[in-house]
Amino acid sequence: LEPRTSAAHATMSYPALDTATQDCPEVIDTFLEDGSAVTCAFNRRGSLLAVGCNDGRVVLWDFDTRGVARNLTHHTRTVTSITWSRSSQKLLSSSIDWNVVLWNVATCEKIREHNFGCPVLSARIHPRNDKVFVACPLMSSAVLVDWSGKDAVIRTLPCDSDPSEWTQQVKGKVEQSLVAAFNHKGDQIFVGSPKGKILIVETDTLQVLKDIQVSSGTGCIIKGITFSKRGDYFIVNSADKNLRLYKTEGLQAEHKFQDLVNRVQWKASCFSNNSNYVVAGSAVEAQHHIHIWDREKGHFLRILEGPKEGFLDVVWHPTRPIIASVTSYNVVIWIVNYTENWGAFAPDFKELEENVAYIEQEDEFDELDDTDAPMKRTKVEEEDEVDIMSVEAHHYGSSAEEPLSEDELVFLPTIPLDDADQDTDAQAPSANQPEPEQQQRRRAPPASAAGSGGANSKDTARKSRNSGAKRPSSKPRARRSKADEAEPEGADDEE
Length: 495
Hints:
Strand order of the largest sheet: 1-30-29-28
Distance between the termini: 111 Å
Number of strands: 30
Shape: globular
């Protein structure tokens, strides 16, 4: 099942193709910053983006408005993985605080929780049943957990090696090599072992249906398994610095992707929304490089160079050509660099580099008479009646055998304030506005003060007439010359 030799040499030796007309992201649009991000995942429609943080929070972003919609707080340490249910009503998160939590997204409440007694490195929810998930605890076998009943039913998945062989030293850090993932329908579980094999296990009976030898020798540890949106392809990331593309039907190896120049390890990988591209990020520290290949031909397309903050995770938007990659601090959003083509709006439109004087034709802007209007206008005859009342259901993002569910969560509703909070805000006086009693005191002084003030003013006016005080003159005062203005202060005193 080794890939074709020609495809392996085509990964980096081919020149970069002209991708101006392809739907492939190439520029940074914005950054999503709310805590130190570790992992992220889109929901089924791509309207919500869940980001797991280093402080244990799960931040839900409204992807259309680029604003924070919810904050799920329960974990006390780093979140390791996030997966959505099919209806986007629930979300499963795992953490190194030994817990796996199932959330109600709409109410931000915790539905179920299970403590494994050790850090959980990954957990993936069943694609058809949100009460079943597979988890990979540290130094333990992968387990299948069923929350259908009151108590959790835990079953251990088969493996071909001892748990002591499932960890490796990478630059002084201990990393586990055991991974597990559901296929598109959820009836099979793909388990990667440290011996370079992938065991295909039936979900109901936990029997090994088939095994695939991906690589052999040193560095054959399986680090990740990622399926495409439709489930017809999957990528295997191994420790020998290669990404292998397999076809689900027949389990045939299609291509092998690698960096022949730098020979880097791959941190995470994913498919595009239409499975035409394969995306992977390098595991080099202080380097945020995303490599993109053509899935069908195996050609290397381009490298996206982001901020020098390291690479942790990458996902592709389910319906649009948008990539979300996780750095050591935030989430980077990559989009397609669109160029404005004004000639597409009208066939006779011409783009001018300089302004040109336009000469109006004689009858170009003349108003048409009612008698000549039917002669000038063309009438389009429609044979069939147009139905403007019925609404067709959108089936994008759904499988061929099952339509979208009616209880699917697309957008999060706003949370209104309680009546008690609104009354408190309304009754609380503002710091800039005085209270009503103070305003009345300022407007109307006491009667005694007003009477005494009036008597004093009459006595003052009578004394000014008797003393012959001079009134101020209405004539304008003469302006001082510039020489006088320039004289220093105290000049008259010296004279």
